[in-house]
């Protein structure tokens, strides 16, 4: 289990990073935390000629509040999602998800940008971008652009990032005073990729929930917005009937894959259970 | 993981059998930490993968992508031309050096298995089989070149499940075979059919046990270093059994035994994985001969999953007959177990199944029994002995039937076991399958477990929580474990696997002690307990005893580590050697002191008066005189300060141990996830040499048993492809999911040895999965669901509940 030989460059700026990538004629890979890429290299599932290490690019660093948007640099570590005061305050869903992502050693190295760029359909953070309605800031030939989460996830491991483009930052609408959120997942062991998981964001309006956004993961090739379930909850108090209606609506929102460990019908069942638990968690936190 | 609870180390029950009064020392029986633990923690361990020999090369293997295929073409030119490559070898190249092997034992009548070679000549028979070896200056270069090897295959029909292999018209696993059955065995005692006809109650179950593997922290690793100038082979090998491999390498490569040296340095776990012949390992010996340089091979984790032995994989149909009072009167069981394309060498792939059909019902009084075993070939990774060989299957079958019977009769699980366990005053006696028991303590263990679990409180809490929709379950499982085997295990079958061990103990010129012994260390603390025994029975502090293991060149020949024998057999060997040496020391001391040896004793490194204990002379002084001033000794003094001793058990064929587990779980009926709340073990391994090590052996074993119960399974598709051969997909139990494990002991020493110790290494694994299965079923009972398959995955639990 040894990687094929590769060249390594460590640019300081976005321009240098793009240039390094272009110089490899497309046979290059960006590396951030390396927690997904390095195992893939070791198993020779990927074998780029050149690794372009993004760790030296300052534009990808830092967490700042910019008006009512939190800008999270792509190099921000998973561990920071647990501890960074700005993230905890303005993107509480991210902080709620973080303990479920892998294990401390991996969280110390893995980056939020790497996770969202990779867009593993079983990953927590990409789905939370969807739940929070974040925008991805991407650097490419035409400079910087922003892509809303709803348009970002295209297919299995395919995002709006084109080859050679760099995810620079995640722009998350800061949670308002009435915001509430819940995260949960069902995994066989702590830190494993989940059988099913999801996050929920909403605004409280008296007893009712508004601006409900629900995103599930491990239920298809990309993270999925549960729009039917959102509609069933929108503007209502989440009583037992409403929860049941949302759970029914969820069936139309997802088209889960089938595998021996978790058959599709079981994923649907677990997703319904999860939705119920998310809503009850929200209520318990009130 | 689990901070030891005060609970975990109860005051040890007073040992029965006071005639096994310990020596005067303070070490045996004390919870002393392993002397080598600090070194390993400090990163000073030297494992095979740490070793770098001058001019050393590295091997990588090209592996078969199909489970069964004919090799039609092998193209090596590009690989041979690749940078850093020294040698590319095929099956044909190695077959010129290495004779084939056959994994059968003579006492398994009718057993068959095809001959094996390091690398195949014509056919690959499982996916992942090594086909071509590439040897290069680095492992990376070898892997680069391996990608350039071209092998053409023609796919053949695959045997990927039991039914396919057992069908009358099934393709045969090897040419000329009449069927795909490696071994068939039926054991029968008493009037089984009559008992079932007369029974008041019959319970039955079809059960399935997943295939899993060992996942040692350190993977398999070896360096073969063949020196053609002397025709001498040195193998640095992460193995449990250096002498077995010395013999095998010598015989299959045509070398005199004395020219083969196997060194097992620090070894990172074995669990039975590291005592089988692996094709890559055998190949590496030949590669070193061909290259004339040392060759290293370390199986990486992906290779380990397709080449380390797999274990278990059984389908069992079992029935139990009971009378109206809940007395067990008969059991009948059919076990079909799926192995690889051949039987593993030299210990075979049949011992597991053989032990399943012989251990079913073993804790209970039982007059009528029939066990029917079929060991069936598959195009999958080879299987063989892994921790607690056969025990977990036999235990789960028996204990599941007991719980079914209890439910049928309306009895509490403790009650039905109390009615049926072999009474503690019934010994010596034998099991229905002919295993002879010297003395076991089932009833005492059952009673102790009830207290340890606080059973009545758990039941009350269960009822209370049930009302709130929380589903907790309690399961118990009794077991017997086979330990301290005599040659009845392998020797009688013609395998050159020693059931004896040897020790050489010497006093050094400074009065310290050096013990070389044939039992080996893989992290379980063998060296620690040997040091404790030598210290006490010789009469020195343990700090001065250096224990050296794992080198065929420097230690006497012996069986080493398998089947729970290190403490019982290795320990007795050390004890007898220490006593011999002590007598010699006292003889010399008596000569110096002009006293009678019988009037002296050796205590804590001091020669003292046997009565009164007054210090007379230090051991260091005895050694100084013996080594440097022998001229001052009376003429004719025989100063033998080095002794050798060999010991083989010769009483009972096996020293059986016993115990019982309890498991407490909470099942989430919506998700199928199970939280293991707590696990309990009461076990009796005879005399306890080091309670700390025994407890940790038991805990480690429990974790592996719980892994089998909930997580670990090698899943194959219909084409014989392993679907989850990585640690991302093959789930091993991890600290967060593991409960606290409370342990208590009974001590019933064996009278076959002076030490009185039996094995404990497999006690944790033997019954943990059975207790967990019973606990989950207890939780699910009110919901009308029953599980008869492990691992109990969320999908299986939700399916049993009809949840989706
Ligand atoms: C044992 C283990 C368990 C894990 N468990 C989980 C889990 O439970 N949940 C989970 O979500 N993840 C899990 N992970 C994955 C982990 O979270 C990864 O760190 C993460 O998915 C990728 O982040 P990274 O910074 O390590 O990215 P890298 O591995 O460095 O890169 C991943 C991919 O993204 C690309 N990339 C990285 N950064 C950028 C960028 N800024 N712009 C464009 N492309 C980029 C790389 O080219 C590469 O293709 C686990 C990993 C391990 C090893």
TrEMBL record, chain A:
InterPro entries given for it?
A: CO_DH_flav_C, CO_DH_flav_C_dom_sf, Diverse_Substr_Oxidored, FAD-bd_PCMH, FAD-bd_PCMH-like_sf, FAD-bd_PCMH_sub1, FAD-bd_PCMH_sub2, Mopterin_DH_FAD-bd
| Gene Ontology molecular-function annotations | FAD binding; oxidoreductase activity
What species does this protein belong to?
Answer: Xanthobacter tagetidis
Q: Kindly provide the name given to this protein in its UniProt entry.
A: Xanthine dehydrogenase family protein subunit M
Q: Which domain of life is it from?
A: Bacteria
Q: Where is the FAD-binding PCMH-type domain?
A: 1-177
Which keywords appear in this protein's UniProt record, sorted alphabetically?
FAD, Flavoprotein, Oxidoreductase
One Pfam family assigned to this protein is CO_deh_flav_C
Asked if the record carries the keyword Oxidoreductase, the reply is: yes
UniProtKB/TrEMBL annotation, chain B:
Short name of one Pfam family:
Ald_Xan_dh_C
Q: Which UniProt keywords apply?
A: Molybdenum, Oxidoreductase
Q: Which InterPro entries match?
A: Ald_Oxase/Xan_DH_a/b, Ald_Oxase/Xan_DH_a/b_sf, Ald_Oxase/xanthine_DH-like, AldOxase/xan_DH_MoCoBD1, AldOxase/xan_DH_MoCoBD2, AldOxase/xan_DH_Mopterin-bd_sf
Stretches the record annotates as Disordered: 1-35
Kindly indicate whether the keyword Oxidoreductase belongs to this entry: yes
Q: Mind telling me which SMART domains this protein's record contains? A: Ald_Xan_dh_C
Q: What is this protein called?
A: Xanthine dehydrogenase family protein molybdopterin-binding subunit
- Source organism per entry reads Xanthobacter tagetidis
